[in-house]
Amino acid sequence: MNLTPQTIAGLAEHLESAELLARDVTKITDEHPGMDWDDAYAIQDEIRRRKEAHGQRTVGMKAGLTSFAKMKQMGVDTPVFGFLSDYMSRPEGGEIRTSELIHPKVEAEICVVTKAALKGPGCHLAQVMAAIDFVVPAVEIIDSRYRDFKFDLKSVVADNTSAARFVVGSRMRALDELDLRTLGVVLEKNGQIAAMAAGAAVLGHPLTAVVMLANHLGARGQELPAGSFVMTGGVTEAIAVQAGDHVNVRFQDLGSVSMRFV
Ligand code: 0L1
Ligand code: MG
């Protein structure tokens, strides 16, 4: 690590304020070019610690930049991981206030809830399959706190991978009732198809994102506990939204997830 605990605490406060006030900031590596991956995740951990100290519960984990379309859109080749807080959740069919966000984008995501703990390193797909309780569809609303999306990957990690809001669908299915690789997803904005893909777009199989998350946590001495909700990452590129937009995502065999931006 290259940053001091004081700098990490200061950057966490800076990025959390940007989120809560919906004010954009310049990427933090401009001021701290030596920031490494451990520093970036330490800043994210400090944001999580601050939220939990304020009574906000951590209710899930997310993998980001896991689809080939998203990696191409961002010009990167490494997934990243973040956390979800209770206040980020919005009901299916509900409203998302854009005044609370900077420049939101939506992503259609295949999600899982686990029934057994997963611990890396060495965690593999079969262990993850055995640990899945059920699969649910969701839409993530990401909102980078960085001005004009000018960021690098470490700055994104520190900014909790742009986590802002998420909407979980109401239809759950057992893993053995689905083929997550061929599961089709159609994202509609204002009644027009904006993007479509199949589950295999996420790292060849969406559960690979859970494998990588378990191994990422394991490398840091942590585990993914039983009962974890995990978003495996957008299957398509992210689609920009604004007030007045209606988004509906159709997931094959998993129903639809919709929301309105106000
Ligand atoms: O959920 C994600 O794919 C993370 C996205 C981070 C970068 C962005 O804001 O687009
Ligand atoms: Mg996402």
Architecture overview:
There is one protein chain. The chain is 25% helix and 30% strand. With 262 residues, the chain is of the alpha+beta class. The chain has one domain (57-261): Alpha-Beta Complex (Fumarylacetoacetate hydrolase, domain 2). The strands form 2 sheets. Strands 1, 2, 3, 5, 6, 7, 10 and 11 form an 8-stranded mixed β-sheet that branches. It has a 5-stranded mixed β-sheet with strand order 4-13-12-8-9, with no helix packed on it. A hairpin with a 2-residue loop joins strand 8 (184-189) and strand 9. The model has no long low-confidence stretch (mean pLDDT 97). It binds hexanedioic acid and magnesium ion (MG). Residues 62, 64, 107, 109, 140, 142, 233-234 line the site of magnesium ion.
